[in-house]
Amino acid sequence: MNCEEMLQRLSEFLDGELPPAQEKEVRAHLDGCPRCRHEQGVLERITTESCGLPLYAPGDATILSISRAIHEADRTPPRTEFGPVLTLDDLCEYLRTDRTTIGRHLSEIPCFELGGQLLFRRKSIEEWIEQKEKSVTFQVTAPTADSTVLPEDAAMGGVRWTL
Amino acid sequence: MSGIPDEELMMRFQQGSAHAFELLFEKYRCPVFTFLCRMLGQQRAAAEDLLQEVFVRVAKAKELYEPRARFSTWLFTVARNHCINFIRSRRYLQNSVSLSMDEAPEGPGSSLADRLPGAEDGATAVARSDLQAELEHAICALPTAYREAFLLHAVEGFSHEEAARILDLKPATVRTHFHRARGMLRESMKGTFPEYGGQE
Description:
- The complex is a heterodimer.
- Chain A is built from 7 helices and 6 strands.
- By secondary structure, chain B is mainly alpha-helical.
- Chains A and B meet through helix 1, helix 3 and helix 4 of A and helix 2, helix 3, helix 7, helix 8 and helix 10 of B.
């Protein structure tokens, strides 16, 4: 084993991760090579110093701001909690969209009717989303005058979004 | 509540105890902030912004936490993901350009040690030796993939398996990144340790 090969294994040797045969070779090389013993010392020192690096503290203003933000976030009801069956309004919230958009895609969204009400099984919706994720390709275009509108153009089998 | 495990505190937070999360924030704000600073090449302002994003994100996603995983692993996963997204963003590039222009003048107060976050927090940070400043500098110069593997294992104390979960990589890959990082640090710092030259 020459010095270059030795140095490539030095870090693993230090952590006891080398197979026994290689570990024996490294030990033998170290016994006869002052330069590599120096490198071993450097590596050990780096390891020791790394454990003792100081912690940084964020500023007081940042801590206060984060504490407030955490309390605010905690007060806001999580919008990700939904039961196994969704109403139309639940679905709008779940998909972060409105009734009009849901209506446009109703033919492909799995749903069922009960007592005159349209209902959606969340599991089926999640599976539908997974299928959509596999098929959608994004084509980002330059902002238009009406950049808040997201036209559902069928482009290349996917959806063209205007950002 | 100081002796309560993190996972128990997080479960109490899930059940409505805001105080439990305050304790977690108090415990982890410095470690996470330090990790973010080192990942971002000491961009303190950006690290403070990300720190807020990370803890707010964790607070909002509390229902997603499952006590099977260590809280610290989950927290650092969120922190690392925010960090990588930021590094890939235009904001990071702009800050980097701005920093490199600020670094140009030589003279008092322009060394890396003077620009490290701790230098602005005399009351809260431990005094930094020249050696530590050199090491900080060398860590910041590592490629991102090596830097995060090194920081998580050697500095934050996560096992290679935990670091792999945080980084969404195989443990063997993380192990390789870590050893390469340490090898690069050895190369860049060997001139800093003349005392080992006499061991012949």
